[in-house]
Amino acid sequence: MDLHYKNSARIEESTLKETAKKLEEYRGYLSQIMGIKVYDAPECSINLPVDQDLMAVVKVIKKSKVTKALKYIIVIGIGGSNLGTKAVYDALFGAFDPIEPMRFPKMIFLETCDPQYLERFSDFLKNQIKNPEEILINLISKSGTTTETVANFEIIAAVFNEKFGDEALHDRLVITTDENSKLWNLAKSKNITTLHLPHDVGGRYSVLSPVGLFPLAAAGIDIESLCEGAATMRKNCIENDLETNPALISAALLFLQAQAGKTINDNFFFAPQLESLGKWYRQLLGESIGKEQDADGKTVHDGITPTVSIGSTDLHSVGQLYLGGPLDKCTTFISVKIVPNPMHLPKEQFTDNLVEKLANTSAQNIMEAILEGTKMAYSKKELPFMEIVMPEISPFALGEYLQFKMIEMMYLGKLMNVETFNQPNVELYKIETRKILKQRGT
Amino acid sequence: MDLHYKNSARIEESTLKETAKKLEEYRGYLSQIMGIKVYDAPECSINLPVDQDLMAVVKVIKKSKVTKALKYIIVIGIGGSNLGTKAVYDALFGAFDPIEPMRFPKMIFLETCDPQYLERFSDFLKNQIKNPEEILINLISKSGTTTETVANFEIIAAVFNEKFGDEALHDRLVITTDENSKLWNLAKSKNITTLHLPHDVGGRYSVLSPVGLFPLAAAGIDIESLCEGAATMRKNCIENDLETNPALISAALLFLQAQAGKTINDNFFFAPQLESLGKWYRQLLGESIGKEQDADGKTVHDGITPTVSIGSTDLHSVGQLYLGGPLDKCTTFISVKIVPNPMHLPKEQFTDNLVEKLANTSAQNIMEAILEGTKMAYSKKELPFMEIVMPEISPFALGEYLQFKMIEMMYLGKLMNVETFNQPNVELYKIETRKILKQRGT
Prior knowledge:
Strand content of chain A: 5-15%
Oligomer: homodimer
Largest sheet of chain A: 5 strands, mixed
Shape of chain A: globular
CATH class of the largest domain in chain A: Alpha Beta
CATH topology of the largest domain in chain A: Rossmann fold
Number of helices of chain A: 16
């Protein structure tokens, strides 16, 4: 993975260095954490990709639950419980599922509790599934009491139960939750297979824990390679100096841009299958940095609003806004270096060279030209950006990206002087919702 | 469709009235346009839903191209050429396609020119399609020279041609473009079925022209009902006074909020199948209002950045940012009043009432409680919002929403004093891209 920013981020190199210097102590702290074996601080999530014990457990359970009959992995979880899994799955398979109807196993995500989706999903279970082995349900809730997740599960479980019986349901279910949560204890009492994530690891930093690793492994994705990518990046982002440390550079740039009023970070992916990776980052940045109070308890209403754009699609949608509109954005372009077997346009064109210079060129060539053209346009308009080039879309490269961004966020939280790992304001709507559900009764 | 804003938008009623008064002259202009039969101004798009000639043409071509064998409608287009179609299709079918594998015809969208997607799409054509009648290709480009659209088509056409021959390709292709564009002339010369959209109607206002109506009709969607919804809303939004005119209210609120520094408009849909509707609006708002210069040629870098959020999913993602972060957002909640057959949770729960008050309640009830709880939380934090309640998710209701938003945008453009219907800055990246493609050669 490469990060380019010189001549485009519009930040003085000396300012960048000064900013990075402020992170030296914290980088030392992360470096210490890298050695330890217990998960007793939120930053310990950086040790997940080298945790061989967790990997072994995930593999054993995968072996016991996945057979060739498996067609659908139903991931029931929301927010940190599924966004990382969806990011990796969609990049490798999900984005292509509509045009690969015969490829299995597919993953289906139940997130919110939409009544129409649930109705049609019940029909799917009733009519399309012949054999319980075709299904694997992974119920994921760190707290064990997420309303939508439990409600979705109850509805689906009732349908599954009616069709295949209680024993089949118990067999086709894996529950991932905090050790000793109420859900954990319930699962144990019913003898259901469980996985847990380390208590101190927060939802949005949990993709490389069993939360993400188990469903991804079940889908046939090489989770060892995913973790190797993450481990490599962990080293770069913690041990390296500014010059070769993408997390340090990116955090400092985002911080300095936000200080300069660029409080929207547009993540502009020139690869549509990475949209869900963008949505994973949207939570990571939004929830980690968007805070009413800073770490000293002062009211600040600080934060950076993440947006996800897809190249070249969104040039035809919000390109005008980005190039001409408010100067409130700092852009991260993300592109992919190597695409195997890029399709070429035919020599003899149906449309008789309606568009110049297209004959015999490749789709990859066109995409590269559009990205270059876009960067030139941004430069001419003096819009700040950095560019991340992923070597390819593979489990290894995705692991690199995920780890890079999680460590970037730890640095950024320090620079912004906020509590990176909490989300106090979210409680507010939950409290109100519970009140309403209580008033309404059933 | 209902719009609620009193007590939540945090704008004085008198200020709102004054702002709306500024639009009286323009409202009169729109009212005049409503009567005419020619399309000689960009605002004439408001006449599309009552254009019986266009409707008739679309129906005739649908009849000639759609048989029971049809399985996939391939929409090749980008930006204004497909976002409206995708909005309606996804709301009714697309969001459920992964769990309704046997429902046809399905729509597939080729937008950007991603090499990996194209490769896998070619495999799909080669391996999954047995008969040319299973496919209908709708190539849509207003100008007729959109790089990505033409490139996608050339690649797909070559594969299709090789498998089924030239004649089959000609038969299974419908081209939608401006009358007398180069593409139009080419299509005519090859005797390919064509549809055109009125020249003065811009891409992002073209969903109710053949651009959207033809593929939607081919997919079996009731386009008459869609247009009836739009026609009803057109009347409300042009003839009614402020009190009962949602476009006028919404435009004035967005304008006043932007003046007050709320330059992000979050469209928070409490129905995941409406995400693409949000993305359609993202172009409409982004491109119509995001302008470097105002209508008098003054450099202003004005605009409102649209974001799309999904309830309740994104409460678990960016809820913390929205409730605690920067005070730069004005929110539009969109919810759906009636959902047929809402699923109920079972009386006897698998998880033994882990979450209180869930037994026997419905998914709809839970979603409503979460939306109410969220609005309460926003109110407590004094965050401005309005709420749109769609009566249901149906072609009629979607037609209402689309027309409401397009007229809202015309009003908003006037209030912001920008040229609502152009997108001058987009040319910049296109010029640079063309230069690069030329330099590189093939």
